[in-house]
Amino acid sequence: MNKSELIEALAAEKGLTYKKAEEVVNIVFDSMSSAMIRNERIEIRGFGSFVVKDYKSYTGRNPKTGEPIEVKPKKLPFFKVGKELKERVDGK
Q1: Which of 5, 12, 40, 53 would give a disulfide with 35, using CB separation of 3.0 to 4.6 Å?
Q2: Whole-angstrom Cα distance, residue 53 to residue 72?
Q3: Are residues 20 and 5 in the same domain?
Q4: Domain holding 65: CATH number?
Q5: The domain containing residue 65 runs over which residues?
Q6: Got the DSSP string for 31-90?
Q7: Does residue 4 sit in helix, strand or coil?
Q8: Same domain, 45 and 66
Q9: How far apart, in whole angstroms, are the C-alpha atoms of residue 24 and residue 18?
């Protein structure tokens, strides 16, 4: 499912116009993005949690030339699936 399919499903389920459903989905995604930018944890019970992990710098290798390169520190979003969702997907 992609974003537009999610919007269509929300519009159909709740009887909203496509434009209103799109606004709701965008508000949710923008709020989640803003929280992660502020380094906050997002937990949706029964679904999972989103956290931002910090990765330190390290020396890597250029796969083409094999020469060492310095990889800068970075932050990446990480999703951990919740127990209920894991069990639903697994068919339990």
Answers
A1: 40
A2: 14
A3: yes
A4: 4.10.520.10
A5: 41-92
A6: HHHHHHHTT--EEETTTEEEEEEEE--EEEE-TTT--EEEEPPEEEEEEEE-HHHHHHHH
A7: helix
A8: yes
A9: 10
Mind listing the pLDDT tens digit for each residue in 16-74?
999 999 999 999 999 999 999 999 999 999 999 999 999 999 999 999 999 999 999 99
Tokens of 87: 């069990």
Buried b (16+ CB within 10 A) or exposed e, 2-22: eeeeebeebbeeeeeeeeebb
Q: 65 to each of 11, 57, 69, 70, 72, how far by Cα in Å?
A: 51, 20, 10, 14, 19
